[in-house]
Specification:
The chain is α+β, with helices and mostly antiparallel strands. It is built from 14 helices and 6 strands. A hairpin with a 2-residue loop joins strand 3 and strand 4. It is elongated.
Length: about 325
């Protein structure tokens, strides 16, 4: 049983009966789920993950005080704290009186303000451009077990829909990074005898390629330590996980350097084919730099189109 399953079972066994019995007039205004920080919210937790911040617990997401006031919120906190201290062989952690907890009673506004800088999830273009993908991933991961009013889920769903022009700007910038690091600088570094720099180029190529792949899947790449696990679950390009790991973990000498450059070009070709499939580029060539500028040229908002191509990277 992973952390998400554990949270759902704990809620069904103890949380839902508690809400039904003690807060019947408020239950339809409370969203319940497991969303946010931690590998368990992505379904990536394992035995190693359980050495910290792992417990049977769930989140009770509350609307603002005009709907559920402080007194009710305090009663909910006390009721949640009184739930059984152990479940399925796992112990619950003590709630911090100064906040910062991943589970328990949390206001919608506080959750989304922490994750994306907006209490209601309405983001300005500048925020969409600057927010790291892992922040958006943490705001939209996990599972909502119930949300009768739909208010919490409405914010969540809006954040899942990155504006198309922003998506294109992010794709364009990362395509140019792929071109510079992989198609250009990798071989040049090797020609200069700079094998360490060549490996840095391979790393930069891989990082940018992963960002592009997630964007082409209309998904948010999580924090780097979970990025390969998430990549393997994507509908498109999941097979690139092993290929990119090869680029990152092998040397840059002998036949390997030629093999790695050919792999870079293969990945570029796959990405270009998908760009064309999604009608994101008008360029017809194997040069990622030309496709980067073509993607940027097709951005509809002239202000965003005319910004530096790296504005969203």
């Amino acid at each position: 049983m992973n952390g998400l399953e554990l949270a759902k079972e704990f809620y069904k066994t103890y949380g839902e009966p508690m809400l039904t019995a003690q807060f019947p007039e408020w239950i339809d205004k409370i969203a319940v789920g497991l969303v946010g920080s931690g590998s368990e919210c992505f379904g990536f937790d394992d035995e190693i993950s359980r050495d910290h911040d792992f417990e049977p617990g769930f989140c009770l997401f509350l609307p603002d005080e005009t709907v559920i006031d402080r007194q009710v919120a305090f009663r909910l906190e006390r009721a949640y704290a009184k739930l059984p201290k152990e479940f399925c062989g796992f112990s619950r952690q003590s709630l911090s009186p100064v906040g910062g907890n991943r589970h328990g009673v949390i206001r919608f506004s506080e959750f989304y303000l922490e994750k994306v800088g907006s209490a209601d999830g309405n983001l300005r273009v500048e925020q969409w451009l600057s927010l790291p993908s892992y922040a958006l991933a943490e705001a939209t991961n996990g599972e909502v077990f119930r949300d009768d009013a739909g208010a919490f889920s409405a914010i969540r769903n809006s954040l899942c829909q990155m504006p198309e022009d922003v998506r294109r700007k992010r794709i364009a910038g990362n395509l140019l990074l792929m071109a510079q690091a992989g198609q250009y600088n990798y071989n040049r570094c090797l020609a200069h005898g700079e094998t360490g720099a060549a490996q840095l180029a391979a790393i930069e190529f891989a990082k940018a390629a992963m960002q592009v792949v997630f964007l082409l899947n209309r998904a948010y790449m999580p924090y780097y330590k979970w990025s390969f696990r998430a990549l393997r679950k994507l509908p498109k390009f999941s097979e690139l996980a092993d290929t990119l790991e090869f680029l990152l973990t092998t040397e840059n000498a002998g036949e390997l350097k030629e093999t790695k450059y050919l792999i870079i070009e293969d990945i570029a070709a796959m990405v270009i084919a998908e760009l064309q499939e999604q009608d994101l580029t008008r360029a017809i060539c194997g040069d990622l730099e030309k496709h980067a500028y073509s993607v940027n040229d097709l951005i509809s908002d002239p202000d965003l189109r005319n910004r530096n191509i790296f504005a969203a990277v």
